[in-house]
What does this fold into?
Amino acid sequence: MCGITRLEDAELAAELGAWAIGFILWPGSKRSCDPGEAAAIAARVRRRTNLVGVFVNPALDEVAAAADLIGLTHLQLHGEEGPAFAAEAARRTGCKIIKAVSVRSGADLQAIETFRTVDFHLLDTGHAALRGGTGETWDWSLLGGRRSAVPKILSGGLTAENVAAGIEAAKPYAVDVASGVEVPGEPGVKDPERVRAFLAAAAAAVGSPA
It folds into this structure.
């Protein structure tokens, strides 16, 4: 459950069993969350869910400071960070690393294979102007050419209505949602009914209790 900016949304996600909540710590996002506010929210839910910090081309010191302040368990790198940066970020913080890629073609799935030692690949929709949060899906059939052993997280345009199809097509470790559970026109503000419907649909797709 990404793009968390409010305590009530984090509490609901944790209560309903979300594997992780994500704080976008990049000021360029319309869902960005101040690190201090993220730390306050994290303090209330840290024992019930994983805490992901989303970064775009950060400095290592910035990542380390945020991880310490918020108590992050995972770092999601959504820019042009390289494998060496990912490895050093993991070493300095002790966090697991999620490397994101914007998928426009099979070449993008091949390119992320240089990140063989990260913990997860997050496969998102490619967009000329946005880094995630597009509300659009991508061509999941491209996954037929993926040979990586790195667990994948499916992202991009997921909703309660299509998450089951996405899980069937991608067979991911996890799914990532932001805009698909928001109040329309209010980035970063989750709609409780949409959150409930999404998590119930995802759980049903894998045969877990909602």
